[in-house]
Write a structure and sequence with these properties.
Elements: H1 3-17, H2 40-48, H3 55-66, H4 70-83, H5 87-97, H6 105-112, H7 118-130, H8 137-146, H9 152-164, H10 170-183, H11 188-200, H12 207-214, H13 221-231, H14 236-244, H15 252-261, H16 266-282, H17 287-302, H18 306-316, H19 322-338, H20 340-348, H21 353-366, H22 370-386, H23 392-403
Helix pairs in contact: 2-3, 2-4, 4-5, 5-7, 6-7, 7-9, 8-9, 8-10, 9-10, 9-11, 11-13, 12-13, 13-15, 14-15, 15-16, 15-17, 16-17, 16-18, 17-18, 17-19, 18-19, 19-20, 19-21, 22-23
């Protein structure tokens, strides 16, 4: 990836997060009933604009590509990934390709794993997280020893954790041993990604390693506590109860979340998270507690606790305080990516849906998981196309498409 590509990508993200360019297309026209035919020239012109600095231009270009029939869009995107001189356009083309669920993208993803463009590598690893292939175990293990890209390595780790969850075999054993090694080595930022992935993929084989980390005060204690809760082994309760007595205030929400995930006094622990979020919203100087409480409620929502997601909306939706709104929006957007059916059901039932969707949109602007966002967009678009004309869910998808600009 060139310096120019990297600088432009950061510039675009900063503009969106500051709200300078985002939200300008909320008045989007009625969504078409299905994929739309376009000329080859129109499609190529749209692809060439995927990296344009103007928000409206690149968003319109992405919209054109997303709504083109798969038989036409996929070959054009594959060609762009392989041949486009602009590295950022190649990256956006690869992301958009994932929305079509076409088997031809597998070869493009494999090729992207060895691309010098770190954005392409990150997308490819994220793709294989969702489509694990145990034949790639040796390649991933080699990459764990070499890959140091700040945004690439976490994606590699998650893809490797997805492999470790596939079952038994010598290759899976080697993958699990490598992940255990990564729990204890390297920078805390990378170790945190490993610990989170092990929890998300319920890596029971890592139980002892995570208990050891949870017992140590420091920046990884809350990550390890959450991972133990996600794994669901109630032997973790002894460790969690012990550290709950001495852990600092900002770590308490993660411990409470973990104990709730173990299905022990969950109602009281979830209630504590809600009260901690309300308290830190109303009282200045508790930002770390606020972030931890929002993150804990988000974790519970991902696990299927609808009340936790509703609490995020009720507290964060009406707030205009950035110190509150940003972490709550980020937590809600993470729920949308990791438990999309739950968030759709909750949005359908909202009395004040506009506030909820605006909060979700703020979170999407902050998230950098472009492939996972594209999966969400594809789900919403397919749901719109497949829903009856007057169905409430179709109306919700139309609103989401307009508010989230996809």
């Amino acid at each position: 990836m060139t310096v120019a590509d990297s600088t432009r990508g950061v510039f675009l993200c900063v503009l969106c997060s500051l709200g300078v360019l985002c939200g300008g297309l909320e008045g989007a026209a009625q969504e078409p009933a299905g994929p739309q035919p376009v000329s080859a020239a129109q499609l190529q012109a749209a692809i060439s604009k995927l990296g344009d600095l103007d928000y409206a231009t690149r968003t319109a270009a992405s919209r054109t590509v997303r709504r083109t029939a798969s038989a036409q869009a996929v070959p054009a995107l594959l060609q762009a990934v392989a041949e486009q001189a602009d590295g950022f356009v190649r990256y956006r083309s690869l992301v958009l390709l994932t929305g079509f669920n076409d088997p031809r993208m597998n070869d493009a993803m494999r090729a992207s794993l060895v691309s010098p463009n770190d954005r392409l590598r990150a997308v490819a690893y994220s793709f294989f997280e969702h489509h694990p292939d145990r034949s790639m175990a040796s390649q991933f293990l080699t990459a764990l020893d070499k890959e140091q890209g700040e945004f690439v390595r976490p994606a590699l780790v998650r893809a490797t954790a997805a492999l470790a969850a596939l079952g038994q075999g010598d290759d899976i054993t080697r993958v699990r041993q490598a992940l255990l090694r990564e729990v204890t080595r390297g920078e805390d930022f990378f170790r945190s990604a490993v610990i989170e992935a092990l929890g998300d993929y319920k890596a029971a084989f890592a139980f002892d390693a995570l208990v050891a980390v949870a017992k140590l005060e420091g920046p990884l204690q809350d990550d390890a506590a959450l991972a133990l809760g996600k794994i669901g082994d109630k032997r973790a309760l002894e460790t969690l109860a012990a550290i709950q007595r001495t852990a600092p205030r900002q770590t308490q929400p993660s411990i409470a979340t973990a104990i709730c995930l173990l299905d022990v006094n969950c109602g009281s622990h979830e209630g504590y998270l809600v009260e901690a979020l309300k308290f830190s919203d109303k009282n200045a100087g508790f930002q770390e507690l606020l972030r931890a409480a929002a993150g804990g409620l988000g974790t519970l929502a991902v696990a299927g606790h609808a009340d936790a997601a509703q609490a995020l909306i009720e507290i964060g939706g009406p707030s205009r305080e950035d110190l509150t709104r940003a972490p709550v929006a980020l937590a809600l957007a993470t729920v949308a990516l990791r438990n999309t059916p739950l968030i759709m059901t909750i949005l359908e039932k909202q009395n004040n849906r506009d506030d909820a969707i605006a909060l979700l949109a703020d979170g999407f602007d902050m998230l950098e998981e472009d492939l996972d966002k594209e999966r969400f967009f594809a789900f919403a678009r397919r749901t719109y196309w497949e829903s009856p004309e007057n169905a409430p869910r179709r109306a919700l998808m139309q609103t989401l498409i307009g508010k989230l600009d996809f």
